[in-house]
Automatic annotation (TrEMBL), chain A:
Similarity section: Belongs to the binding-protein-dependent transport system permease family.
Residues spanning the membrane: 107-130, 142-168, 188-206, 244-270, 290-316
InterPro entries, per database record: BPD_transp_1_N, MetI-like, MetI-like_sf
A Pfam family the protein falls into: BPD_transp_1
Protein name (database record): ABC transporter permease
Organism: Acidiphilium iwatense
Organism domain of life: Bacteria
Domain ABC transmembrane type-1, chain residue ranges per copy: 103-309
Location within or outside the cell: Cell membrane
Keyword annotations of the record: Cell membrane, Membrane, Transmembrane, Transmembrane helix, Transport
The keyword Transmembrane is annotated on this UniProt entry: yes
From TrEMBL, chain B:
Pfam families assigned to the protein according to its UniProt record, in alphabetical order: ABC_tran, oligo_HPY
Taxonomy of the source species: Bacteria, Pseudomonadati, Pseudomonadota, Alphaproteobacteria, Acetobacterales
Listed CDD domains: ABC_NikE_OppD_transporters
Domain ABC transporter intervals: 11-255, 342-581
Topology versus the membrane: Peripheral membrane protein
Database matches in SUPFAM superfamilies: P-loop containing nucleoside triphosphate hydrolases
Gene Ontology molecular functions: ATP binding
Subcellular location: Cell inner membrane
Protein name, per record: ABC transporter ATP-binding protein
Protein family membership: Belongs to the ABC transporter superfamily.
Record has Nucleotide-binding as a keyword: yes
Keywords: ATP-binding, Nucleotide-binding, Transport
Keyword Endoplasmic reticulum among UniProt keywords: no
Length: 324, 599
């Protein structure tokens, strides 16, 4: 008798989760090493050149800088895992309380960009592939190439010039939010950052969808379905799309993972109170606990996004899904 | 009746032609023929002859880069080529259907079999699944809901092809085009699929165009045969007439290239190559390769004209009758007295946890060709790879010239490795595309010694001479050679190390019959002139008769029969051997006549 094996899909998920945890652990070590264990003194970096020895000593004790490195790491990791990643060195607020609204704001930004941007790019890719070398395909492909060549802050500034300051004055050029209020209460300030991110993610997803779809449309089984007399809509949406989507899912995930970093620039351009802008401020202020926590959160987002993408890609491919 | 009179024709193609987009270069020259209800017309030709293009043109369809450049396709009075593109899919589906060459790629990997079957109907059948199950039963698949829920990758190649056939027959269209639907299936599966096709066409009076490169398959299936060469139908007539009394020189040459399962013939290749569409001569495209060609043949292409009732030929000098088959070129070489070139004793082998060979023993005498035949999965290729040192997980002994061989080729002596050479099935993928042919051949020598550049050049040139390739071939890239030339280059690469034993793994299965004949003759000559022993792995039993002296039949990882070739083919001892022989399509099959139902 063969031993009873776990369902292959469950095994796959468990393995990916284990690898994800390992990745996060390595990230935490790197972040910690980069911010705390490097030469130089964190307390001096925070307090500046003119700090008194007494103040330095007290801060060092507070930050556990007098303990061995691994103990410091253990204390820090324990804090992060138990949801108490310490206090800000700048204003003494709890890190979590300071970062949580920013995470929420960034999440709103990314979700909206994804909700509008991904379907738009997918749809454009599908249409371009079905009318390959037509006018739509040619023009959108050219625009996508141009967008891919521009850094995201240039796209953002261009939109500000176009829609907020110089050409037409429809929208606020910066996305200032009074502390304690939700960004969702002011949809107008969301428009420009969301639009910028939509344009930033468009080219990669569009090009991948177009390429993948064009390849599938050339395949034997699409020719076969065509000869069977199926309508164009069923052909594209039922026969081609499910087979074309798997590689695109990976690219969407990679794009968003990249955005988790790219959002820093866009938020900075619009002064949007998200995690990216928070990270930039923390770096300027040498607010080490905030930097560490922000980076770990972004890494966690990156890792979970990749796991979800792999899982979706498997679910979209019957051959992988039913492999035993 | 053979259905040439337009009166009862269900399909009529009139001056149908296909050209390359943006040019006047024609891939299919204006072609006319008709199909009677229930009639199967075999369309044969070698690669590049335009047979698939013509088949698709009947559906008013073409591959990217081509265009339908003229003519009419009338089915039930409707001209498919005049239907506006937006209405074509909906109106074509009830008139003509298509069975693809490779069901592995023609079924959608992302959709269940049931879904793909159901959408073959313009309106969903009233009794839903029962109707689909009946379709499965029609093509002799198990009519179970589990099969409807399966995805294509969960089916075998033969089952996939049956599903594709079920899809084509679903709405009982008057016409079906089948594009080499049994290529890639083993003979037993092929025989079953062909029988299903024959029965379905007869039962539902469906006319079929059966596109194939395999004359033996067409001989067993078709009522009439059309032979295509360089975009033209050069001969068209009843199957028995065309195959046994061919009138066109090309048809005759093609038939002489086909090995015959029932008697030993010296297969003859056709010198030269078919011209590409852009380089077709002004006159008869076959004239440059034709021994009978006159000046008039080169002036303008002869029209298809009747030489007898229903028998049309496009030739100024049609011949009647088939020349007597040439006597065998090589008499069986005795060599049993000498020490065997290769001796395999009690080999058992595994792929992972699966045992794939169970104690196989045989020997190969010097200067002898031993054929290794059997169904796919019987262990033929594994045995060949073990001898070549490419598969390592085995027990037993292999002696080459009396000396034992190590498991891995890397552990064998340089001389031993030189003495065993392996030729792969597919000449399209066995050469590095970025390396010139000469460099690839020289690599085989460099692995063992470091000769001077001039010495190496001389030896490469000699190896090319042996396989009758021009020496210039050394400076060509693989894509610049035809399939047959590439396979000859592969043989040159094997010969350059001075081997004693060549292992040939299905080396002609990717080639046209005329090219296969050239390769087979080449191997027979090398065997005699250079004292080579051959281990010839194949599923083509007819070919065995033409090349081998001794046959090993494999079944389920065992050698079940090991006898001289005539004994195995004429008086098989094992039931599995008898079944293989019975399933092999026979070239000399009794002519099929329309109206005699066999289903």
């Amino acid at each position: 008798m063969r031993p009873v094996r776990a369902h292959p899909l469950r095994r796959f998920i468990l393995r990916r989760l284990a690898l994800g945890v390992l990745t996060l652990f390595l990230v935490s070590v790197l972040v910690f090493a980069a911010t705390e264990a490097l030469p130089g003194n964190a307390a001096r970096a925070v307090l500046g050149r003119n700090a008194t020895p007494a103040a330095l000593a007290s801060l060092e004790t507070k930050l556990h800088l007098d303990r061995p490195v691994w103990v410091q790491y253990e204390l820090w990791l324990g804090g992060v895992l138990s949801g108490r990643p310490g206090r800000s060195l700048v204003n003494g607020e709890k890190v979590l309380a300071q970062v949580a609204p920013r995470i929420r704001n960034s999440a709103v930004l990314l979700t909206l960009a994804g909700l509008f941007g991904v379907p738009l790019a997918l749809l454009a890719g599908i249409v371009a592939a079905t009318r390959r070398d037509g006018a739509f395909d040619a023009s959108v492909s050219t625009i996508a190439l141009a967008l891919a060549a521009l850094p995201e802050f240039v796209v953002g500034i261009f939109l500000v010039i176009l829609l907020a300051t110089t050409v037409i004055h429809w929208l606020p050029p910066v996305s200032l939010v009074p502390p304690g209020t939700s960004v969702l209460a002011r949809p107008r300030i969301l428009v420009l950052p969301v639009l910028t991110l939509m344009l930033v993610i468009f080219p990669y997803i569009f090009r991948m969808m177009r390429g993948s779809m064009a390849e599938i449309l050339e395949s034997d089984y699409i020719e076969m379905a065509r000869l069977k007399g199926l309508g164009q809509r069923r052909l594209v949406m039922l026969h081609a799309l499910p087979n074309a989507i798997a590689p695109v899912i990976q690219v969407i995930a990679l794009t968003f993972a990249y955005l988790a970093g790219g959002v820093v620039l866009v938020e900075y351009v619009f002064a949007y109170p998200g995690i990216g802008q928070g990270l930039v401020e923390a770096i300027f202020a040498r607010d080490i606990p905030v930097i560490q926590f922000d980076v770990v959160v972004l890494a966690g987002f990156y890792v979970s996004l990749n796991i979800v993408a792999d899982l979706l890609a498997v679910l979209a491919t019957p051959r992988l899904r039913t492999a035993g | 009746m053979t259905g040439t009179s337009p009166g009862n024709a269900v399909l009529e193609a009139v001056d149908l032609s296909v050209a390359i987009v943006g040019t006047t270069i024609t891939v299919v020259e204006p072609t006319s023929f008709s199909l009677a209800p229930g009639e199967i017309l075999g369309l044969v030709g070698e690669s590049g002859s335009g047979k698939t293009t013509l088949g698709l043109a009947l559906l008013a369809h073409h591959r990217r880069g081509l265009r339908l450049s003229g003519g009419r396709v009338l089915i039930r009075g409707q001209d498919l080529l005049r239907i506006p593109p937006d209405q074509l899919p909906a109106r074509r589906r009830g008139l003509i259907r298509y069975v693809p060459q490779n069901p592995g790629t023609a079924l959608n990997p992302g959709l269940r079999i049931g879904t793909q079957l159901a959408e073959c109907f313009a309106t969903p059948p009233a009794n839903g699944n029962d109707h689909l199950l009946a379709l499965l039963e029609d093509v002799k698949l198990p009519p179970t809901p589990a099969l409807l829920r399966a995805y294509p990758h969960q089916l075998s190649g033969g089952q996939q092809q049956r599903v594709a056939i079920a899809m084509a027959f679903a709405e009982r269209p008057p016409v079906i085009v089948m594009d080499e639907p049994t290529t890639g299936l083993d003979v037993t599966t092929q025989a079953h699929v062909l029988q299903t096709v024959r029965q379905l066409c007869a039962r539902h009076a469906v006319a079929a165009l059966y596109v194939s490169h395999d004359l033996a398959v067409v001989a067993t299936l078709a009522h009439r045969v059309a032979v295509m060469y360089a975009g033209r139908v050069v001969e068209l007539g009843p199957t028995g007439r065309v195959l046994h009394q061919p009138a066109h020189p090309y048809t005759r040459a093609l038939i002489e290239a086909v090995p015959d399962l029932d008697r030993r013939t010296a297969v003859a290749g056709i010198a030269g190559q078919a011209p590409e569409p852009a380089r077709r001569p002004a006159g008869c495209a076959f004239a440059p390769r034709c021994a009978l060609a006159l000046d008039a043949c080169r002036a303008e292409p002869p029209a298809l004209a009747a030489i007898d009732t229903d028998h049309l030929v496009a030739c100024l000098r049609p011949t009647s009758g088939r020349s007597a088959p040439a006597p065998p070129s090589s008499s069986p070489v005795p060599g049993a007295s000498a020490l065997p070139a290769l001796e395999v004793r009690n080999i058992s082998a595994r792929h992972g946890a699966t045992v794939v060979l169970h104690g196989a023993s045989f020997s190969v005498s010097p200067q002898t060709c031993v054929a290794l035949v059997g169904e796919s999965g019987s262990g033929k290729t594994t045995l060949g790879q073990i001898i070549a040192g490419l598969h390592h997980d085995w027990d037993g002994d292999i002696l080459l010239g009396g000396a034992p061989l190590a498991h891995r080729s890397a552990q064998r002596s340089a001389a031993q490795r030189c003495h065993i050479q392996y030729i792969f099935q597919n000449p399209y993928s066995s050469f590095n595309p970025r390396r010139r042919i000469g460099e690839s051949i020289a690599m085989a020598v460099r692995a063992f010694e470091s000769p001077s550049a001039s010495d190496l050049r001389r030896r490469v040139a000699e190896a090319l001479d042996m396989v009758a390739l021009p020496r210039e071939a050394a400076s060509r890239y693989p894509h610049q050679l035809s399939g047959g030339q590439r396979q000859r280059a592969a043989i040159a690469r094997a010969l350059i190390t001075g081997p004693k034993l060549l292992i040939c793994d299905e080396i002609t299965s990717a080639l046209d019959v005329s090219v296969q004949a050239v390769i087979v003759r080449l191997l027979a000559r090398l065997q005699q002139e250079h004292g080579l022993s051959l281990l010839f792995i194949t599923h083509n039993l007819a070919l065995v008769r033409s090349i081998a002296q001794h046959v090993l039949v494999m079944h389920g990882g065992r050698i079940i029969e090991s006898e001289p070739v005539d004994q195995v083919l004429d008086a098989p001892q094992q039931s599995q051997t008898r079944r293989l022989l019975a399933d092999a399509p026979r070239f000399s099959a009794a002519p099929v006549t329309l109206g005699v139902g066999d289903g």
